[in-house]
Amino acid sequence: xxxALQFRHQAIDPDPPGAHHDITLVxxxxxxxxxxxxxGGKSGDxxxxxxxxxxxxxxxxxxAPDLEAGGVLLDINGDGRLDIVAGQQWNGxxxxxxxxxxxxxxxxxxxxxxxxxxxxxxxxYSSSAMRTSSSAFWRTSARGMSxxxxxxxxx
Length: 155
What we know:
Layout: E1 19-27, E2 36-43, E3 48-52, E4 57-62, E5 72-74, E6 83-87, E7 95-98, E8 110-112, E9 120-127, E10 132-141, E11 144-153
Antiparallel strand pairs: 1-2, 2-3, 3-4, 5-6, 6-7, 7-8, 9-10, 10-11
């Protein structure tokens, strides 16, 4: 078929740390113009890490118990670097903010996001320069934690 896309399989890490890798995010973490790959899982001494494109060198981010599918990249504190927000699996109650350091190849500080009295957590980032607003919401209940993400232009 003329013009058909062709893909080549490439293993970037035959033995990644941790287990049950449920989080996959793509972003340019080191600002070199290439998309890097972020992976997170439920267990391991280090269970959140990223691969630097194009060498696919692995960099540890942090460890947090029972990370689950999802996660979002946001510049939470307005420093120009993408931070990661991720929560625990369905029966967990923790929501984490991993703050990207000036050198993203170094470990990222892990912080707990606060769950309000109504059991909702909200993290918001607004930038007048970008004229956008992004919000991530996590809700905890007897069945666990759910999340949603919105990103919209401001007028």
